[in-house]
Specification:
about 450 residues, alpha/beta, seven-stranded parallel sheet, about 15% strand
């Protein structure tokens, strides 16, 4: 092995679980906990270069990350094609699969399988390796992916019904206030637009009766005429409800995201909507729930169940897999954008790098980042006119703040275990002791 190759070999891998403050954002399962677990990954090469990655920090993911971290020592950061086989070998298949209606697991991501968990863990390591590789050779991550096709990436304002504070005064306070009716959500959207320059808006639905959420979208359309709007109830509706909402909002929405649960129901809704929109165009259906692995693509695309896939590099196993997904979508005439879960700046930087390389990215990407007041970076990523600039700094272009990382890790260490796994239903029981995650369809 040459000196250059030796310099790219991994000498150390560090895993740091953290708890990050999260606001009381509502969804169909309940409410976000006061703190959300994330895992920060650092890979250190023999040449002294450190690469950063980030993924879910729940116990199930951490348990898979630990053996993978050990097995990576001595391997090159360039050996990315070997990661899936290595993860399959050392991480195992302990997690039982759930059914298509089990939206109470895995962060509202559809069917949960051991393979999905492995890919979510693998994604963080792949990003860290790409970051280290880019720093070592003086190239941005987008160059390692083939080069950027745009100099900035557009993001949408991610709107939530929310409480003013967590039950019992838990967690960290913020100054957003409650948003529990159309006027509250419109005020939230105005603040997002004024602060970050966002020009498209996505509402997390499935919280209130569909009629109220229809009214909220109509209020947004009146407040922001001509701006792209999306609605995502996380599969909470029946086919009949989805079609009724589509009839009300078909000329307002840019797309309707996961109105129903599972590919079969999505296909039924899509077939009924064909040719019903203005000029004969139908309201597109988007998903981050029924197409989250390669095995789910064939049925969804051949049945025309979805017209837009919201990719997520955490789900698919990294940035290169995201590019592969985008190519498959292009071959089938399916649009592509990006999904977001609660995340920090490392994940947002990775999203932005890969998004900059996708020619067919025609929709603004999702991001929870404006809701996260805490980060582990020395400098937060800044939205301008609703966009993030794509620079040419080597690697991801971000730097770790070790003091801040230590603070968030100490919070994780001090937790008694109740917050180390995200559980929106358990968080809701703080306010409503009888609450259980609703079965779908909910309405």
């Amino acid at each position: 092995m040459s000196d250059r190759e030796n310099a790219l070999a991994l000498a150390e891998v560090r895993l740091t679980p953290v708890l990050v403050a999260d606001p009381p954002l509502l969804n169909t399962l309940g409410v976000h906990q006061p703190y959300t677990p994330r895992l920060i990954i650092e890979v250190v090469t023999e040449g002294g270069v450190t690469g950063l990655g980030e993924t879910y920090g729940d116990a199930g993911y951490l348990g898979l990350a630990e053996p993978l971290a050990v097995s990576l020592i001595g391997r090159s950061v360039t050996d990315l094609n070997g990661l899936p086989a290595l993860a399959a070998e050392v991480c195992g298949d302990a997690v039982a699969a759930t059914g298509p209606d089990a939206v109470d697991v895995g962060g509202l991501r559809g069917v949960r399988t051991a393979d999905k968990l492995r890919l979510s863990v693998l994604s963080g390591f792949e990003v860290a390796c790409l970051d280290a590789w880019g720093k070592a050779v003086g190239l941005p991550v987008h160059a390692l992916l083939g080069g950027k096709v745009r100099d900035s990436v557009e993001y949408s304002a991610y709107l939530f019904h929310r409480w003013a504070a967590h039950p019992g005064g838990r967690g960290e306070r913020d100054h957003w206030g409650a948003a529990l009716d159309p006027a509250g959500v419109v005020a939230q959207a105005r603040r997002f637009a004024d602060t970050y320059g966002f020009t498209s808006f996505k509402l997390k639905g499935g919280v209130f009766e569909p009629a109220q959420e229809v009214a909220t979208i109509k209020a947004l359309a009146e407040a922001f005429p001509g701006r792209p709007l999306r609605l995502d109830p996380n599969g909470a509706w029946s086919v009949a409800t989805a079609l009724a909402v589509a009839e009300e909002l078909g000329d307002v929405l840019e797309y309707l995201e996961d109105p129903v649960s599972g590919t079969a129901r999505m296909a039924e809704v899509a077939a009924a909507l064909a040719g019903t929109g203005p000029g004969g165009a139908r309201l597109p259906l988007a998903t981050n729930m029924c197409v989250t692995t390669v095995d789910e693509i064939a049925e969804a695309f051949t049945r025309d169940a979805v017209q837009i896939v919201l990719s997520d590099h955490h789900y698919w196993g990294g940035l290169r897999a995201t590019r592969e997904l985008a190519a498959v979508c292009a071959a089938f005439g399916v649009g592509v954008s990006m999904h977001s879960n609660t995340h920090l700046g490392i994940s947002l930087a990775a999203m932005t790098q890969v998004a900059s390389t996708l020619p067919g990215l025609r929709y603004a990407c999702d991001s929870h980042y404006p809701w996260q007041a805490e980060d582990v970076l020395t400098e937060r990523l800044a939205f301008h006119d609703g966009r993030l600039a794509v620079g040419d700094v080597p690697g991801l272009g971000v730097e770790l703040d070790r003091d801040r990382l230590a603070v968030l890790h100490r919070r994780w260490l001090a937790d008694d275990g109740t917050l180390r796994d995200r559980d929106d239903a358990a968080a809701m029981r703080r306010a409503d002791p009888g609450w259980t995650a609703p079965a779908v369809p909910r309405w």
